[in-house]
Design brief:
single chain; mainly alpha; two-stranded antiparallel sheet; 6 helices; 73% helix; globular
């Protein structure tokens, strides 16, 4: 049995969160119920403020194996991704409240695309964070 790093999240729980974002945003678009964007926003805020993601907590109940036996995802990377997602969802909600429909679709669309692409295997947030860390490292050498 493999041992996952202490500061990691089992991949199925990360994917559950991604599917939740994709399905919630798609449903809000399909039925034009913008306040549904509050659901992933509040879940994300809970994770950021309290380090408690109620969706992942519930999802743990459905894991069939020990959490350490699943491929691990870095918790700090997920936190970074969550900051981006919550910021974009917040932008979508503010756009809705101010009547800026283009902003609703622009901001929620960025989250939708990022979560969809992550489900397909490429993490946009990971790429951004890697480039940022690389930039910081190169700058520290000067």
């Amino acid at each position: 049995m493999s041992s996952a790093p202490a500061n990691s999240i089992p991949r199925p729980l990360v994917q559950l969160n991604q599917w939740f974002i994709v399905s919630t945003v798609a449903t809000s678009w399909l039925f034009q119920i913008e306040f549904l964007l509050l659901l992933p926003f509040l879940v994300g805020m809970s994770a950021l403020l309290f380090k408690y993601n109620p969706l992942m907590k519930a999802g743990r109940l459905f894991l069939k194996k020990e959490t350490s036996s699943y491929p691990p995802e870095d918790a700090e990377q997920q936190r970074f991704n969550n900051i981006i997602a919550v910021s974009c969802l917040g932008g979508a909600i503010i756009s809705f409240l101010t009547g800026w429909d283009t902003g609703v679709y622009l901001f929620s669309g960025m989250v939708f695309v990022a979560a969809s692409v992550a489900l397909a295997g490429f993490c946009i947030g990971c790429f951004i964070r890697f480039q940022w860390k690389r930039f910081q490292y190169k700058r520290s050498l000067q």
